[in-house]
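Can anyone check this?
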Amino acid sequence: MFGGSSVLHVIATYQDDEVQEEAVRTLLGRGASVDAKDAEGYTPLCIAARQGKPKVFELLLDSASEMTFKNGDSLMHMAVSSREPGCIKCISLVLSKWPHLKDEPNKRGLTPVHQCAYSQNVECLVALIKEGANIHKVDNNGCDTLL
């Protein structure tokens, strides 16, 4: 671990996609833990989602067992927190395996739709709405995304 991060955490932030994918495959082949958490409680899968790295995200997704993270955020919360070009592909990958996560609230009652609306992440918000996400779910403060 480097400052609380594993090598997979570090690689998940790397900018060269080709090198990044090869490194992830190598590390997974050597038994690197996909579920290792950094000092903030995030796994390499979370980081790949937040960085909008769909190819790495997909490689890690097949090996991950932990799907709920800090503050009760789901993998979908992580994917919609990205503004990177690959974020929509990460959202699609999550929906293909766990479609219910589009409406799953975290501990604060925030769904991925709430998170997109509050952060003004229009691209991810539109993607979730197109997939049928509930825009009327109420958070722990009694607010839906239309208020």
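Reply from J.R.: I decoded it. Residues 37 and 43 are 5 Å apart (CA to CA).
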